[in-house]
Amino acid sequence: MLSIIIFVITILISLSVHLANAQDSDTLFSSHDTTAYSSSLQQNSTEEKTFQQVSVFMPNEAVSIQVIHDSTSVFNGIYKIDERGYVNIPVIGNLSISNLSISQLIDTIKIRCIDYLPFPNIRVTPLMRLSLLGGFYKPGLYWIDSRNSLWDAIHLAGGFQREDGLKLLRWERDGKIISKNLTSLFQSGASLQSIGFKSGDQLCITSRPKTSFSFREHIVPFFTLFLSTLSTGLTIYTLSR
Q1: Domain enclosing residue 226, as ranges
Q2: pLDDT in tens, 93-130
Q3: Which of 74, 106, 126 is the last residue of a domain?
Q4: Is 59 domain-assigned?
Q5: Helix, strand, coil shares of the chain as percentages rounded to 5?
Q6: What is the pLDDT of residues 133-146, one digit of tens each?
Q7: What Cα–Cα distance (Å) separates residue 113 from each residue in 55, 117, 132?
Q8: 103: exposed, middle or buried (Cβ count in 10 Å: 0-12, 13-18, 19+)
Q9: Is 122 helix (H, G, I), strand (E, B) or coil?
Q10: Cα dihedral sign for 179, 131, 37, 206?
């Protein structure tokens, strides 16, 4: 009879933990997701070609250079553009790029560094500054492609710590709130550039934990401890008979 009671208690412990996990399974976005959330860029070939041919490098921003098929290339990296519009690239040195398009910068690197490029395929990406502050798993200051979406930006910071994080998200610039309703922009997958984000903008969310009652936090620990203690006591009693 005692063995049956112990078995039932064990089942109850498992069920309590399962119910707690099920209650928290509807979290909107978390850094523990195994799927990498990254929306595809919503641009056709004409828009992409135009982007490649116009000057998009701004002072105090950055540029990412990557030699395709050569992960050890000395050119791979993120390079900050100074206030004059210059960037310091290995082998080339200081180079003014504020008046160059992406295509022109790629051609310049290929021509001036031909002896150092066994694989001449180069990817150049302009980057803007974006601060993600507060209730993210990895808050901080990030370089991000302006063609990425709001979803991509939040994923970069590891996702929300709170299940209601998207509702509390604020878009700020120079200490002023630009928008507090970002749900539709988040769901649309539109690029940061098309939404209107500028370098230096901030995405903020309060990191204060929710104060509402939580079954998992307030009940499960005590219930589990009680059942475990009871199970241990019954086991000892059975063995001592």
Answers
A1: 2-24+213-240
A2: 999 998 999 999 999 999 998 888 887 789 999 999 99
A3: 126
A4: yes
A5: 40, 25, 40
A6: 999 999 999 999 99
A7: 22, 6, 36
A8: middle
A9: strand
A10: negative
The residue among 122, 119, 112, 113 whose CA lies nearest residue 52 is 122
Q: Cα separation of 9 and 234, whole Å?
A: 10
CB 161 within 8 A of CB 137: yes
Q: What is the DSSP string of 171-224?
A: EEETTEEEES--HHHHHHT-BHHHHT--TTEEEEE--PPP-S--HHHHTHHHHH
Q: DSSP state, 55?
A: B
Same domain, 66 and 102: yes
Q: Which residue has the tokens 């500028």?
A: 198
- CATH code of the domain covering residue 94: 3.30.1950.10
Give the pTM: 0.61
Last residue of one domain, picked from the residues 126, 160, 182: 126
Q: How many domains does the chain have?
A: 2
- For residue 111, give Cα distances in angstroms to 89, 91, 122, 125: 14, 12, 12, 19
